[in-house]
Amino acid sequence: MKHLTTDTTGRPITMADVVQKIEGSDLSTTQRRDMISAIKRICQIAGHAPSSLLADIPAVRAMLHEIRPAAHGISPKTFSNLRCLLAAALQRVGLADKNHRGVASRDAVWAPVMKAIAYDKRLSNGLAAFANWCAANGIAPEDVNDHVLQRFQDWLEARTLHPKPRDLVRRVPNVWNDAREGIEAWPQIELTRISFKAPCRHLSWDQLNDGLRRDAEAYLAMRAELDLFDERPNAPKRSLARATVRLQRDHLRLAVSVLAQNGMPVDDITSLADLIQPKAFKTILRHYYNQANGEPNAFVNCLAQTLIQVARHHVGAPEEQIRELKAIASKLPDIPFDMTEKNKALVRQFDSQETLAKLLFLPQQLLSEVARDLEQGRFRFVDAQVAIVVDVSIIAPLRPQNLAALNWARHFHEPDGPKGPLRLLIPEAETKTKNRDLIFEIPPDVAQRLGWYRRHVLPRLGADINGDLFVTERGTLKSQKTLAQQIISRIGDHVGIHMTPHQFRHVVAKLYLDEHPEDFETIRALLGHSFAKTTLIYAGSSSQRASKAHSSFVLEQRERLKLKRKGKRQRRGGPYG
C-alpha cells in the first residue's frame, strides 16, 4: 500500500487537520484566513470535503494537475495564488518544504559557478532549483553526482508541490553537461542523462530479421507508389497515403513483436508469409483482443486488414487462405459506427453556452493580450499562433496535418487583392481523400486577425510573412506534434477543457447540425469526406436534436392555443394549484 503522511496515532492526515492546525497557529489573522480559504476552495474545486482529502503530497500534486481553472470560472493567476497558499499551509504544518529560492546565489561555493552561467537563461533557469537545493543541503558543486540528483528527485516528489518534478529532474543532467562543456568555471562532472520512459516491449525495425525487413520494405514501396504496368491479378488498384504506409509499417513491426513475445524466435520470422499463416494470424489478433479486454478495438481491426492486404497483394496467398484469414478477422467485435466516448464527452461540453463563448472568442482575447504585451516588450508568439489556429479551425476544420502545414503563398488567395475576400485552398493532392480541392471562405474579422499576425508576429520570428504560418522561435516550420501540444495547453488554460486540433472537426459538425439537423451534406463537404456514410457518425445525437425540435413544437402549440383558453376561470391557488 502507498505510504501516506500520518499523525502520531498512525491516522492519515487530512486537509481538515491542516485547516485545524492553521487555525491554531500564530500566523496573522489575514494569513490564517487566506490559507484556510485557499484550502477550502481547492477542495471544493476538486470535489472533495477537506475531511476526505488526504494531505499526501504526491496525491495533492496529482489532484492539482487534474484541475482546469477555466472550467471553474477562475483565471490561471488566481489558481496559481490558491496553489501557493496551499503550499504555504502545508509548509507551515511541516508536510512540505520551502523551495530554497535564491539560496545558491548567496552561498559562498555556489555563487561563483551560478554567476558564470547567469548570462544564459537556459542554463541558469534549468539549474536554479537544483543548485538552490544543493546549497541548502550543504552539497558543493564538486560533490554533485547521479546519487545527489536522485535525492533531489525524491525530495521534489515527496516534499514539494512542484507540478512536474520528473520534467525538472530530466532537464538537469542535459543542462549541467552543457554547462560543463561550455563554461570553464563549471565542475567537470558528467551526469547521466535520465529517461522516465518505460522500456519498449516491442521490437524496433532494426531488430527484425534481415530477410523479413527486406520483404516488408518491398511491400511498403509497392503500396506507396502504384505501378500502372503491374499486370499481376492481385496487384493493388491504388497507392496508399504516406501516413497509411507508415501505419502499415508499424503494424508489421508489432505483429512480429507479438509473435516473438509468444515464443517464436525472431530469426524464424524471415518473410511476410510467416505473418499470414492462420496460426500466427490468430496469435497476433488474440494478443490485441485480450489487451482490449474483449472490447471493440479499431487498432486490431486495422492490423488484421493490413495483414490480409499483405497476403493478397504481396505474398500472393491462394484465395482459400485469404478467405480463412477474413473468417478469423470477422470474429473480432465490430467497431461501433459512432464517435468515441471521449469525443462524445467533448462535444457535450459545448451544450454550455458559456463554454462555447469561451472558445469562439478565444482568438480575440489572446491576440488582444499579445498586442498589449508587445507594447510592454513581452512577445507571446505561441498565444498568437493558438489564436490563429482556433480562428481558422472554427471556419475551416482541417485535419491536423493540413493545419500545421499552412503556408500563406500556397494556401491563401486574395482574388481581388488585400481589400477583397480571402480564401483558403487545400489542393486535392494534400487532402486525405485526394479527390478534390477544399476551399473555405474566410470571414473579414478572421482575415483581419490573420493580417495582424503576419505583420506583427512572423517578422519578429524571422519568418517570411508569405511563408509558413506556424513557425518556431527560429522561424522554421513548427512540428505538428509541438503545435498540437500548445493548442491543447492554451485551450485547457482558457476554456477549461481538453481539446485536440482534430476535435475541432467534431465540434464544428455538432454546432452546425444542432441548427440544421438534416443537412449532413454541408458537413460532409466542409470536412472533406468522400462518402456520406462517414459523416453519419454525427447522427448519434439526432435524438437530442429531435427532442429539441419537438420541445419547440410543443411550445409553439401551447402559444397558439392560448387564445382558445382565454376566459377560462383558473382554479384557486394559481395556475399550478
Structure explained in plain terms:
The chain is an all-alpha fold. The protein folds into four domains: 15-92, no CATH class; 103-182; 205-329, no CATH class; 342-527, Orthogonal Bundle (hpI Integrase, Chain A). It is built from 26 helices and three strands. The chain has helices at 15-23, 29-46, 57-66, 76-92, 103-106, 110-116, 121-136, 146-159, 165-182, 210-224, 242-261, 278-291, 298-315, 319-329, 341-349, 353-360, 362-375, 381-395, 400-404, 408-411, 444-456, 480-494, 503-515, 520-527, 532-535, 542-561; strands at residues 412-413, 422-426, 438-442. The protein has a three-stranded antiparallel sheet with strand order 1-2-3. Strand 1 (412-413) and strand 2 form a beta hairpin. The protein is globular. It starts with 14 loop residues before the first helix and ends in a 16-residue tail after the last helix.
Layout of SSEs?
Elements: H1 15-23, H2 29-46, H3 57-66, H4 76-92, H5 103-106, H6 110-116, H7 121-136, H8 146-159, H9 165-182, H10 210-224, H11 242-261, H12 278-291, H13 298-315, H14 319-329, H15 341-349, H16 353-360, H17 362-375, H18 381-395, H19 400-404, H20 408-411, E1 412-413, E2 422-426, E3 438-442, H21 444-456, H22 480-494, H23 503-515, H24 520-527, H25 532-535, H26 542-561
Antiparallel strand pairs: 1-2, 2-3
